[in-house]
Design brief:
The complex is a heterotrimer. Chain A is 35% helix and 27% strand. Chain A is an alpha/beta fold. In chain A, α7 (189-206) links the parallel β6 and β7. The radius of gyration of chain A is 25 Å and the shape is globular. Chain B has one domain (2-272). Chain B has helices at 2-24, 27-51, 63-83, 85-88, 90-95, 99-103, 109-114, 123-139, 149-180, 185-198, 207-216, 219-222, 224-231, 247-272. Chain C has helices spanning 2-6, 9-13, 16-49, 58-88, 92-106, 118-126, 134-140, 146-181. Chain C is 78% helix and 0% strand. Classes of the chains: A alpha/beta, B mainly alpha, C mainly alpha.
Amino acid sequence: MAMIEATGLSKTFRVTKRRSGVFGGLRSIVDPEVRLVEAVQALSLQVEPGEIVGLVGPNGAGKSTTIKMLTGILVPSAGEVRVAGFNPLHQRRAMSAHIGVVFGQRTQLWWDLPLIDSLRLLRYLYRVPEERHTANLARMRALLDLDEFIDTPVRQLSLGQRMRGDLAAALLHDPQLLYLDEPTIGLDVVAKARIREFLLRINAEQGMTILITTHDMDDVEALCSRLLIIDHGRKLYDGGLSEIRDRFGGERTLIAILDPAEINALPRNATGEPCLMNLPEGVRQIRFDSPRVWLSFGKEALPAHELVAWLGARHRLKDVTFQEPEIEDVIRRIYEEDLLLQEVGVV
Amino acid sequence: MIQNVLADLSLYGRLVAMQLRAQMQYKMDLLIDVMTYFLVTALEFATLLLYFVPFPTLLGWHVGEVAMLSAVVSIGFGLAELFGGGIDNFSVVIRQGDFDRALLRPVAALLQVSTNEFRLRRLGRITQGFCAFARALFLLRGFHLIWTPLKILALCLGIVSSALIFVSILLLGATICFWTIETTELTNILTYGGREMLSYPLTIYNQVLQRTFLFIVPLAFGTYIPVCYVLGRALPFGLPDWLAFLSPLIALLFALVALVVWQFGVRRYQSTGS
Amino acid sequence: MLTIRTGEVVTDLSKPCNFFLYWFSRESGRSFYYFFWRGLPTYLAGWLIFGIEFGASWLALAGFLGCLILGAMSGIAFRVLLNLVAFWLLEARAVIVLGLTTAQFFSGNYLPVAFFPAWLYALASWLPFNGMINAPAQIFLGKLSGGPLLAVLALQMGWLIVLIIVVLLLTAIATRRVVVQGG
C-alpha cells in the first residue's frame, strides 16, 4: 500500500480583491471583486513507503497548498487523497498520530519553554507510551546532539538548533511519514549537512518515508530518490533525479575572471565582444561582462577541472567559480521545451 | 469514551501546569501584575459604592445587595479571564499563522488553543471579587441574611456557570477571527459590557436588555438569579426561584452552541486556508 | 511603547522634537479613527435608543469641540508621559495600566463626575482628566457655559502646556541617557 496516494487534487481559492480608492474598503464589503485562483490543478502523486521525494517549484507554485491538503489542514476543491491509509480531512486526528511535520519557518515547539519541556509534553499530546517515548527521546538526543541546548528556552535557540529540536519533536511519536517544509532554509553549510545526514539515517534505519519541499538543489541531490516539480499548480515532472540531471541540469556554468591585459588581447566576435577561441567540444561562451566570461558546458563535454586546466593553460586567469543550474532555470527550460509529462502511477 | 475525556483533561492540566511554571519564573513581575489588576478592579468596585453616596437605593436595591451582585460577577468574570486567556488571544494565533500547528496534532484544536495562555494576573480580579463579597456581607449586616446550604450551592453553581458563559462568549469572539482576523468590538461589548451591566440589578434595564441577558446570552442566570435567590428577592417575569439551580445546565447549552459555531469556523478555515 | 523595549527608540529619539510630533500625530490619527468608528456610532445609538440630543447653542457647540480637542490632546500627552515614565521603571505595564485607570476614573468614565462626593469632585475638577470626558459632556448638556466654561478651557489649556513641557523634558533626558549609555 502506498504511503501517499493523491488523485486529481485541486484547490481553487476565491480571492476578494480590495477595491482601490478612498471608499475601496467599504465597496469591497458591499460588492467585492472576486477572483478565482487555481492554486493546484489536478495533481496526482504516489509515494511508496521508504521513499524520499523532493517537491520543488518556484514560489507560489502550489507546494505549500499541496502539503496542506496532504496533511488535512486544507480541504481540496476536488480529488482524493489517502495518507497512510487515512483520509486526511475526515480522519485528521487519527492520521496525525502517524505523521510528523516540520515547518522551516514556524516552530511546533512552545516558544517560552525549554526544549526539553516541549519534548516531554509531546508525549502526552501524542499519547506515546512512556518507555517508547523515553527511548525515542534518548535516541533523538544522541542523533541530533541536543544535549548542549536542551534546557534552553526555544526562543533563545539559533535557527539550526531550533530545526534540530523541531525534527526531534516530529519524530518522538514514531510517525511513518515525515513532511519537511524547507527544513534547511537559512541554515549554514555545516547545519545543512548535519540535517541531511540525519534524514538519510532515519530513512535507512527506520524506512521513514520523507516528503521534502525545498528550494535548495543540494538538498534534492543529497536526499531525494525522486523529484516532483510543480509550477502554477501543475505537476511538471515526476521522476528520478538522474534523468532530470541529464536532460536539463547537465549544463553547468563556469565563470572565469580574466586578467585585464588578457581581455584586450582577445579577438572580437561579430558583435564586438571579446571571445575565447577554440573552446573544447561542448563548451560555449554564453556571456561576457568584463572581466568575467561565462562558459556553459555539459556533462558529456569534459570534467570541470579539465576545463579549468584548459583555460589556465591558454589564458591568464585571476579566478574561477562555478554556477549550478537554478531550479527556476530548469523549470523555465521545461516550459520552453513544452514538456509533456508522463504521469507516474495513478493517472 | 470516558478514557478520552480523562486523557484530554489530564492533558489540559499538564499544558496549564507548563504555562504556570513558565510564568512563576518571574515571581516579582507576576506579583506586581496581580496587585495592579487588583487595584484596577477594586477601583471599579469603589465606583459602584460611590454611586450610593448620592443615591441611597437603586430601584429598591441596597448598596450591600448590589455589592454582592458585583462581587459575584467579578469572580465569575475573573475565572473566565483566567481560564479563557488562550481563547481571548486567538486573534494573535491566527494572524501569526500558528493555528495550522494545532491542526497537525491528534488533539482537539480547541484544547490546544485554550492552553496557549494562562493569565495568572487575573487572580487579581478574583481576589478583588472575594474582597468585594466580604464588603457586601459587612454592608448587609443589618439585614439578618439567613444562609442556607442551598443558597451557598446556588451561588457557587452560578459563579461557575457565569464563568462558563463568559468563556463561551470569548469562544464566539475567537471564532469570528476565522472570518475577520480581528475580534470585533462585538465580543468586547458582550464581555466587558456584560460584566459592567450585570454588576447592577437586571431590573434597571429595559425589557429588551433583560430578555437578552436571560434568554440569548444567559449571563443573568449565573449572576442575577442566584443572588436574588440568596437575598430572597423575586425574579423578573415571574420566573420560579428554583431556576437558580438550573444555571449549569443553561451554561452548558450555551457552551454547546459556542462549540458548534467553533467547529463551523474551523471547517471554514480549512476550506479557505487563510 | 514597544519601541523602547526593542531598542528602536534609539533611532526614534535621535530627533527629540520629531519623536514627540511623530507620536502625537500617530495618536491623533488613532483618536480620529476611534471618534468615527466608536464615538459616532455610540452617539447615534444613544440618539436612537435614548433620544439624546444636542440641546444647546452654536456657541456651546464651539465650546464643546474646543474642549474635546484640548482634552484629546491632553489625553495623548498623558499617555506619552506614562510611556516615558515606564521607560525608567522595570515594570512598565503596571505604571501604564494604573495611570490609564486613574485617568479614566477621574474623567468620569466609571462614574459621572457629578456624582462624586464633594471632596472627590473638588479634586477631579483640578485634574487634567476632567477636560477629557466630563467637561465636554457638561458643555454638550448645556450645564457648563459662559464664565465657568472659559475657566475650564483655560485650565485644560494650561494642563496641556504643562504636560507637553514635561514630556519634552523627559524625552530630552531620555535621549541623552540612551545616547550616553548606548541604548
